[in-house]
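Help!! Second protein's tokens look totally different from the first
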Amino acid sequence: MDATTTVVRAACPHDCPDTCALLVEVRDGVAVSVRGDPDHAPTDGVLCAKVARYTERVNHPDRVLQPLRRCGPKGSGRFEPVPWDVALDAIATRLRDIAARDPLAILPYSYAGTMGLVQGESMAARFFHRLGASELDRTICSAAGFAGLELVLGAALGMDVEAFEQSRLIVIWGSNSITSNLHFWRIAQRAKRAGARLWCIDPWRNDTADKCHDHLQLRPGTDAALAYALMHALIEHDQLDHDYIARHTLGFAALRERALAWPPERAAALCGVPAAQIRALAWDLGSIQPAAIRLNYGMQRVRGGADAVRAIACLPALLGAWRHPAGGLLLSSSGHFGVDVDALERPSLRGPLATRRVNMSTIGAALLHPGDPAFGPRIDAMVVYNSNPMAVAPDSGSVQRGLARDELFTVVLEHFRTDTADYADYILPATTQLEHFDVHKSYGHRYWLVNNPAIAPRGEALPNSEIFRRLAARMGFSEPCFSESDEEIAAQAIADDQRNAGIDFAGLRAQGWRKLAGPAAPFAEGGFPTPSGRCEFTSERAAEAGHDSLPAVILPYECAETQPDLAARYPLSMISPPARNVLNSTFVNIATLQAGEPEPTLLLHPLDAAARGIADGAMVRSFNDRGSYPCRARVSDRTRQGQVVAFGVWWRKLSPGGVNVNELTHQRLTELGAGPCFYDCLVEVTPV
């Protein structure tokens, strides 16, 4: 390495449980490579194919590098460059005018374009609280799963991912780990080589299922029934830890009665799998210890998703699996971290101003129904950052029509001219992860990480935090918190909390990452953070909120059992898992990744294809009452008969027909958690 080359410690910002520690090689002020830190145990020196190409994203010729003002109709993509001062003055004037009428008419829209605590919801949240804007209910990914987990375990807590290497049975439930959780998969592979048995539970035979010993290919939305059938078999063969149940759980008698109503044969008929396979998995769970479940978010994106998580989360306590560091369950590790959200976001800045919450998963309806009591005041301005709602939100045709409203003032902070940016009045150039400072926690492991800027911002790009600082100044917000630096904000993120014992900002910044010191087996002796202190099979809180006190089997909004007339017209259930080379709508415009996955595809079972006269590689039209989506068919027995797999999420303008798979998904929400139902969708498919 020559004298002009340096290596900077950074962190992957993307919406992935792995939150990798990065080493960025910089030569003469240019980032030339990004690699995984070999000393950070979860990263282990390896990156996914997407982030390994991060310099292509930073140096992409299509980067937005100066403020842009719309000079054509919304959606035309016609913009002209303007100086920062001109853009910020105009935006502040427009927001001030709207706020004078009703600040609730202003809505921030953001999610996990960066998971950083500084460039995510810190200065931005302070700005919107002080303004008195509407609040966004950020539900689009994990809300249902978190709601279910919290009712049973008390918080988003679980196993240490590194402990899976010592597990003897690993059940990967609702996840294609090779695509969306690569570093967990590497740990699972080491366990497999040491003799562990691996099961995959998923509606399609994905890459992960191919490499597990067994694949249970259930119908979408039937996971709770499967969980109860597993409980039935465990009870039937008395493969339970009665001591753990008596000392550390609540409501076993009621759960037992509910489970005994779901023999494997009943669940098999509903789930579309052999009863013998359910019994085989139950026997493995009851006889192989330590047993671990890696639960992921795919299975909670249906009407009953939160209750499915509740049912699955009961299994480790029934087995006593929590006694072992390598036993139990992991959906999210978020609750292990002590984050000082109040210090980051300053909700007190709102003072006595009224508020309302807009669910981000129903943004299409909220924009299209101004004044509807279900949504509150008309949305007159939307500021979008760290998200691309026109591509990622359900029922994207409604989102497009909402963003096309002439009277809606829209500002987008972005790296590229995305689908959403095409409908902006102003596009503001944001920095990438290599160009700004941040601090990160993870939802897949137990390490804090720091991201140091490796290079100067390209062009005129600014960090999100600085953009909102400058807007705050123009709005006359003089509170000291609007003058804090990114480093000062990051230091406040790490709460003075026993969960962060021994970790401070100075030490974290010096090392780049630090692991939390919590117990390897968090519930070995109970101590669940529920009202009872036990694993709550039954929940008084759920009952008080009008839900079943036990996990319920709730079928999808759109399926043959709940809507037979709709299923007669649209007989194919559709799920839309992520394509391997994209992450939400990020990376779809990276040339080397496009080469491996050049267009959106749809998997169709051979029998369904034959019945419709569809050949492998043909262009097809997938449609329902919400819209029509053209894409390339791949005829494959990797999907079930009666089910299609439409990979997402391409930008609409990079897809055939100018739409993507979310043209077909609906805006109805999960029964618990108010999350989206992306995998709760009926369609028909015909040749183009």
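Here's the second one for comparison:
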Amino acid sequence: MRKILDVISEPLMEAFQEAGYDAALGKAVLSNRPDLCEYQCNGSMAGAKQYRKAPFVIAAEVEEKLRARADFGDVFEEVSVVKPGFINIKVKGVFVAKYLAGMMEEEKLGVEKPAAPKRILIDYGGPNVAKPLHVGHLRSAIIGESLKRLGRFVGHEVIGDVHLGDWGLQMGLIITELRERKPELPYFDESYEGAYPEEAPFTISELEEIYPTASARSKEDEAYKERAMEATGELQRGRRGYQALLRHILDVSVTDLKRNYQRLDVSFDLWKGESDADPYIPDMVRMMREKGYAYESDGALVVDVKEESDTKEIPPCMILKSDGAALYTTTDLATLVWRMKDYHPDEVLYVVDKRQELHFIQVFRCARKTGIVGEDTKLTFLGFGTMNGRDGKPFKTREGGVMRLESLIDGINEEMYRKIVENHETDKEEARQTAQVVGLSAIKYGDLSNQASKDYIFDTDRFTSFEGNTGPYILYTIVRIKSILNRYKDGGGDADACGMRDGGAATKPLMLELARFNEVMENAFEEKAPHKVCAYIYNLANEFNHFYHETKILGEEDPQKREGYIALLVLTRRVLESCIHVLGFSAPERM
């Protein structure tokens, strides 16, 4: 379905052409003075220099051609030229109602599938195994999940990969600590040839205690760290017992990670890790050596990635350390090897902390230079800012430690539960369930309503408020609409059979906002900007609530007018629910 701006622009472009000017000058845009008009065309300003005419003269000629059109009265209510040469436009309510009726017939409310859908792989997890999720993992999960859903909604094939941190020294530390505690386990006996136990020799709680203990000890005990580094090397060289332990660590960790991600309503298509890239490293390194891309520097293997246009120093991309060990750059490059081999994506999008920008500049340039990724695949770095406490510093617990993600979720849910039972007489169990749904909206909307690249303050009081630009406010609006539609149904009405109609001045602002839906969704994905969806539904919710307070909906005596109002509510609910689904949360039936 064409965007409403394109429908409005078409007669304008033809009028420009008929007046002897470039048709492209006739593009309509939203008015920056909504007190004066709904849309405007600024093409006369742009054409003044090209045609050596005053913009007001061009605009007046175009207006004359526009008014002469047979379909002028079908679209335009009012068109005026104002100095220095703007064309101000108001459209007919009947025209907008007809456009909205077309939206209601579409499964995706007018969002067209792209002519050439892309296959896009999003890397948006990155948690380390054997460690609990903490608030530092929140933004990647929330932003990445939203982009995955948004991409699918607008018609692309989008694949989400968690990309676990399951390789490197942390694995060696766990193995070393476990060996000291339980040396009798068969995994440490190099002569053992039997089958290893199916059950892991630790629980998730034990595993989450083992790693920080081992990490702290390695910083004070150099011999212990050396043993851990040796264990890491043996694991990466394929020692059978250590490989079996790695599988146990992954099984136990992934089960717990899935449980926590589920609480955020975040899911991944692929549960791959750095270890999955390991088999591709030897051939990749060999290729880089043989083709002359990689060379030794102070014992390490590196690839130069600096460019003449660089305004700051970009160090060489290190492929192997002097001891032959792999690094994050190595596994990220090898991960691209298998992603290209197995999926041939049109784009690989990394949703990661913006402080990792230099790392990804090096990885992207190295991947391009060495031919791992061809020119037809786009590599995108979406760096997000930090989530901070009210003191402006990274979010911490009261004790000063990094807060576990499940603790943050529990705290928000408790606050929502308190507010729900304070304001309403309700069943306690239902209130708990509602608090979880609304609490998730508070967390996700609170994050996504900020531009991804910017830091933001996580303010529990503000995010859980039912007023203002918050998730609970959006959900309260949806629940209000559901309540009205349910009452209409209880009175014998069929909301789905109601047709869209022009409701005059009372409905027009809401109708115009609804008509922007397809443009907003497509633009938000193109710019990788979920915050634009948040801004849109906040404006839409405000327009609906203004309409609600100013209009008798069910009390309207004219049955046709009442049916038009109901149709408008049905579409508003569908648009809002489509948007919150893309943002990663849902609305309860009651609040």
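Reply: Different proteins will give different token patterns, so don't panic. The mean pLDDT is 95.
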